Amino acid sequence: MSFFQEENDEYEDVSTVMVRNSHLDLMDQDILYHLALGSGSHDLRAMFGDVKFVCMGGTPKRMEQFAYRLMEEISYKIPTGTTLQDISRYSYRYSMYKVGPVLCISHGMGMPSVGILLHETIKLMFHAKVVDPVFFRIGTSGGIGLEGGTVIISDEAVDGTLQPHLELQILGKTVKRSSVLDKKLQWELKSLAEPDDPYPTVIGKTVCTSDFYEGQGRMDGAFCDFTEEERMEYLEKLKFNGVRNIEMESLAFAALTHHAGIKAAVVCVTLLDRLKGDQIHYPKEVLDEWQQRPQKLVCRYIKKYLSKR
Ligand code: R2B
Ligand code: URA
Q1: Which of 8, 124, 125, 177 is spaced 20 to 30 Å from 259 by Cα?
Q2: Which residues take part in binding substrate (predicted)?
Q3: Is 109 a pocket residue for ligand 1 (Cβ < 6 Å)?
Q4: Is the ipTM beyond the 0.95 threshold?
């Protein structure tokens, strides 16, 4: 039996997204400020009640491209001569496109940015009474011992010290939230990598940092207080511990979706092998093509899932 047959049982419409905040019940309306949406100003149930997948990626342009790719793939029609609307355009923060049951949203750079977006998107799912949505992050990363263009499905998101939890400071206290990603979803995605794909798709551990330069052991930032030997020692240690890539959102993405009971996956392409350098020097056309790769994989997943409904 294919996983999608099994999966259909699991995706029976059984549970809507829950928020872990009783205060929301006491509010007469909830303004999702950074999405330019609100439970009082919009009929969120009518607008988003049919959502099944939420795909997040760094830039507005990439998410718009992804939305148009999806439109093609799932034959989603909009009136001739019209374009997809950026639903969150008046926030001037994030961009959001809806293609049938798929939301495509840009998350910006880093954990604070994706964290704010997750709070509001999870609340959006709650207000819209969405049933069992699956969240994806499709992004870019630095490879550890992997050439540029490799697709990595994260099996675990860890911080720079290899701990699998997000540390938040709440009311002056440190709170830890486990960063758990869905194992089955990872293997389902991996099974959709095709033998003809001219690049490898692997599953592995992802380190998530709060900085692109010093935080990722780069020597080409404005500041650097470590030596080349120390840099290599750290990156080799990551490799030894099963880390395949480094990026800047997976930890918050995994921890906050898990906290909300939402199934999630992180799929990133590598833009370089960090064991060989720091600078991203490939031509724009090459980088553009590489960035399509995680999109293709997630698209295959969504398409296959929708074709079984
Ligand atoms: C990957 O690329 C960005 C930094 O260039 C960051 O958002 C990430 O995780
Ligand atoms: N994104 C990152 O966070 N790091 C890289 O090296 C490349 C992309």
Answers
A1: 8
A2: 216, 218
A3: yes
A4: yes
| Residue pLDDT tens, the chain, 309 long | 344 444 344 444 468 898 999 999 999 999 999 999 999 999 999 999 999 999 999 999 999 999 999 999 999 999 999 999 999 999 999 999 999 999 999 999 999 999 999 999 999 999 999 999 999 999 999 999 999 999 999 999 999 999 999 999 999 999 999 999 999 999 999 999 999 999 999 999 999 999 999 999 999 999 999 999 999 999 999 999 999 999 999 999 999 999 999 999 999 999 999 999 999 999 999 999 999 999 999 999 999 999 987
Distance 129 CA to ligand 2 centre (A): 35
The residue contributing the CA closest to ligand 1 atom 7 is: 109
Q: What is the C-alpha radius of gyration for the chain, rounded to an integer number of angstroms? A: 19
The 3-state secondary structure of 286-299, one letter per residue: HHHHHHHHHHHHHH
Q: Which ligand is nearest to the CA of 290?
A: 2
Kindly identify the ligand whose nearest atom is closest to the C-alpha of 59. Answer: 1
State if residue 142 touches ligand 2 by the CB under 6 angstroms criterion.
yes
Looking only at the bridges linking them, the beta strands covering 173-178 and 165-170 are antiparallel
Site to probe by mutation for ligand 1, drawn from 248, 250, 268 as the one with most ligand atoms within 8 Å of Cβ, is 248
